[in-house]
Specification:
By secondary structure, the protein is an alpha+beta fold. It is about 15% helix and about 35% strand. The protein is built from two helices and eleven strands; from the N terminus they run E-E-E-E-H-E-E-E-H-E-E-E-E. A hairpin with a 4-residue loop joins strand 8 and strand 9. It is globular and about 65 Å long. The chain starts with 5 loop residues before the first strand and ends with a strand. The relative contact order is 0.15.
Amino acid sequence: IASKGIYYEPYSITKITSNNKEIYKHIIEGEKKLDESYCLVLSQLLTSTFHKDLNGTMANYQVPSTFAAKTGTSDWDSWLVAYDPTLTLVMWSGYDDNRPLDYTSQTINRQTFQDVFSSYTQTHWFKPNKDIVQIPIDLKTQKMAQEGAIYWFYQTGSKLKL
């Protein structure tokens, strides 16, 4: 999703040099797996976890940059996935034997995210493509509003898909 629908095979060696000569360089090749517009809309939607008006799961863990985030917590484990156009962070906390988590253990991923990214300032966020329309939405009434939060919607031809 963070790569706008392009899948890249994971790799660890980018290049090998010997005697100042490059003898191997990894060629990055991506394969389209998901529709770019859907990925962009979903990324923008996942910024809502930081909206205080929605009581999002990341509302109390603000950072100065824009991130998409998804959290998941059960009695025995806690997940956080967050990304922007250049970084992806995945964190899990829990116990191998499924012992219940206390409140601190349930929120440690969110607090760690905030601690790590509190001084990170990105230079850009995703840009909508030609198939996306931006609409300001009042988060309390869920209606269009001039001063609302910007949400992206996928539009094909003259039809808007809400």
